[in-house]
Amino acid sequence: MRPQAFTRHTAARPAVRAWTALLRANAGAARALSSSLEAAHGLTLNDYEALQSLADAEGRRLKRVDLARRLVLTPSGVTRLLEGLEAAGLVERATCESDLRITYAQLTDAGAERLEAASCGHEGSICALFEERLSDDELVALAEALELLSGPGDAAVARANGFG
Amino acid sequence: MRPQAFTRHTAARPAVRAWTALLRANAGAARALSSSLEAAHGLTLNDYEALQSLADAEGRRLKRVDLARRLVLTPSGVTRLLEGLEAAGLVERATCESDLRITYAQLTDAGAERLEAASCGHEGSICALFEERLSDDELVALAEALELLSGPGDAAVARANGFG
DNA sequence: CGTGTACAATTGAGGGCGCAAACAACTTTA
DNA sequence: TAAAGTTGTTTGCGCCCTCAATTGTACACG
């Protein structure tokens, strides 16, 4: 933030620097989380979060498109993700009677158990990540700010580059 | 803490939910940013940040390992990333006289220009992303919290899963 | 009732990146 | 100064994911 020899206007925009750094830190943390989860429970981070999304959903099931939206993946990504979970018996397919295009991803009991087994350690990992660096007060404040940020809609991105 | 139909203790840990959501939002934003950047300037997000790291570095050059650390990539990832940038003439190789193992990544003038051309729009995109949802005050607070979070060191992850 | 459009899901191709192994060049130890 | 360890870089392999194209279904509307 102090004057620098190289004139890059990044210095004038703390939010940019902070967000960029956060993005990196998050990516690193996600990798660490994922490999830890995989070693301990045979689930990748996306596997885990897919299971969690289903567990939280009504009837423990979700349309594949909706799951994609929640995980911020493309439908094809979800197809491949679920391939693995279906093969492992953690998720089943279920059809929709009123609309044959739709396939539900349905959490199985085995899936719920696997999720439950993994959740405590995994959430502990995440909390530890934060508590390593933030006080409780900071943590609450941050959590609130993050809630604001984590909605959908990234229309702003396209505009600023003035592209087509 | 409150009673729920499905007993998942996630509800008791706002930070976990918030961070998880943030991770997704970040991933989505990064993709949007990257493709916008690519459409407008032929650079991926990592390309851009590699150039920026070099531009900020003393002598506009960095050891490949150091670049890897900054970008939170493995050395092999950096090798591949720089392949592209070298082919485009934005970065050059430079050897270290005192230690022949080391190869520097050296920003070229063309690279600096390309970075400069892209930076305004790109930073605008990032700011827009935040300003779409946060007030100025919130933004400053968040930026401060993020600075705290974005340091290295993810030792905590390994511990919480009690794995080997 | 056929036709055009919208939507859900899948498939093939390709890119980015990590992991592990290999290699080169230092450094340490003896 | 030979042997063993450390560090920087690259390469082979494979995973995960996106993009574009395809198929199958639903719902217009003339």
Mean pLDDT of chain A equals: 82
Per DSSP E runs of 2 or more residues, the count of β-strands of chain A stands at: 3
User: How would you classify the helix and strand content of chain A by structural class?
Assistant: mainly alpha
Low-confidence segments of chain A, ≥5 residues, pLDDT <50?
A: 1-11, 152-156
Query: What fraction strand of chain A?
Result: 5-15%
CATH-level-2 architecture of chain A? Orthogonal Bundle
Total helical segments of chain A: 7
Largest sheet of chain A: 3 strands, antiparallel
Brief write-up:
Two copies of one chain form a homodimer. Chain A is mostly helical and about 160 residues long.
Could you walk me through the main structural features you see in this protein, from its secondary elements to its overall organization?
The structure is a homodimer of 164-residue chains. Chain A is mainly alpha-helical. Chain A has one domain: Winged helix-like DNA-binding domain superfamily/Winged helix DNA-binding domain (Arc Repressor Mutant, subunit A), CATH 1.10.10.10. Chain A is 63% helix and 8% strand. Chain A is built from seven helices and three strands; from the N terminus they run H-H-E-H-H-E-E-H-H-H. Chain A has helices at 14-41, 45-56, 64-71, 75-87, 109-131, 136-149, 155-160, and strands spanning 61-63, 91-95, 103-107. Chain A has a three-stranded antiparallel beta sheet with strand order 1-3-2. In chain A, helix 2 (45-56) crosses helix 5 (109-131) and helix 3 (64-71) crosses helix 4 (75-87). At the A-B interface, helix 1, helix 2, helix 5, helix 6 and helix 7 of A face helix 1, helix 2, helix 5, helix 6 and helix 7 of B. The structure holds a DNA duplex (30 and 30 nucleotides).
